[in-house]
Amino acid sequence: MTTPSGTDARDTELAAQYEAYPYPERDPRDEAKRLLIGSPSHLREIDYWVFGARRARHQPLKALVAGCGTGDGAIMLAVQMARANRPGEVVCVDRSRHALDIAQARAKARALSNIRFIEGSITDLERLDLGLFDYIDCCGVLHHLPDPDAALKGLEAHLAPGGGMGLMVYAPYGRTGVYMIQEALEQLTPFSEPPATRLDVAKRVMRHLPVTAWLRENGNFGDHLSGGNAGLYDLLLNPRDRAYDIGAFLDLIDRAGLESSCLMEPARYDPEFFLPDPKLRARVEGLDWREKAKVAECLTGNMATHVAYVVRKGERVTPPDYMAADTVPIMREIPGSELAKHIGPDGILPFSFGTLVVPVPLPQQARSILPLIDGERTLGDIAACMAERGLSENRFHKTWSKMFPILERLNRVLLRPPA
């Protein structure tokens, strides 16, 4: 385990935690059964939200996973690149040897040749001399560091021209109850005690947690509470655990010379999606996007994290015209035929923003159009298919003009970059 620059006592304890209990807890044998999917660092999201669906797929993608842990994001991206025959490499940096060993075993189980692992701290990238990257993932790391601002600026310095990042930090309101238990445990089992001792105390507290504890009412932590020793330790015993409301997160991004190209999912940060009252919507329309995001976070109360794709200030790429006949829509993950099954006869798609399910109205024809989106057909091809089924070109384009912006903001339908 290497010793990074800019450490303090809590950072030393953090390093001990992740060496004892690498997070998230993963078994390499599970790679034969499933691929974990999420945001950030989904390849199709990177193509669209970072590069605006304009970066050619044949162009090699050099990616850095800064603080890879046991490898969820790194494995996902490397697998997706391999499956799509995309050239490039995923470089994984973490200071926990134990975590890297698990991530490396997962990569070996999948016979991945486009990924490599380096033991080291993301705050020491200059010393590691890894060069510049087209894309950098820093997921669940910044909020644990002694100086998040310096760390993010250091990552920005390693972005290649036109590159971007995927970031995730904790958010306060969706973590209601967590910090109360953390504070109690800091008194019951100080950071100076061995990780195994602290974990034993935490388990005892959870067995006897009063029914009035706010954590009992919070349904956002199934992955931590059912994630074995590593999950419980990371949730309740982490020696440094900041939370950023959306304003503070955007300020952090801004101070690093970056700007958000997408908050994930975009619709989650727009109160219009869960405030059907016309008078309230009229008030929402008068807000700028940052103010809307603040209102959404405060009203929903269930955002436990914030995920953003970011680029350097002034370098945000505008995607192609989604109404152009030669543009190619692509499903982010769920096949169009599967998504269509969830749309009711009334055109309503029940959509989950975490634990909040919101009814999203779509044009009636969406159920017929979605199965035609295969990542190969152009919009013109899809229009021709629908014309054979009796939907005129004019009606198709009216439908698509309403349908795509909604599904794009839900991060379900994106555009494919050129070959």
Automatic annotation (TrEMBL):
CDD domains: AdoMet_MTases. The keyword Transferase applies. GO terms for biological process: methylation. One of its GO terms (molecular function) is methyltransferase activity. SUPFAM superfamilies: S-adenosyl-L-methionine-dependent methyltransferases (SSF53335). PANTHER family: TRANS-ACONITATE 2-METHYLTRANSFERASE-RELATED (PTHR43861). This is Methyltransferase domain-containing protein.
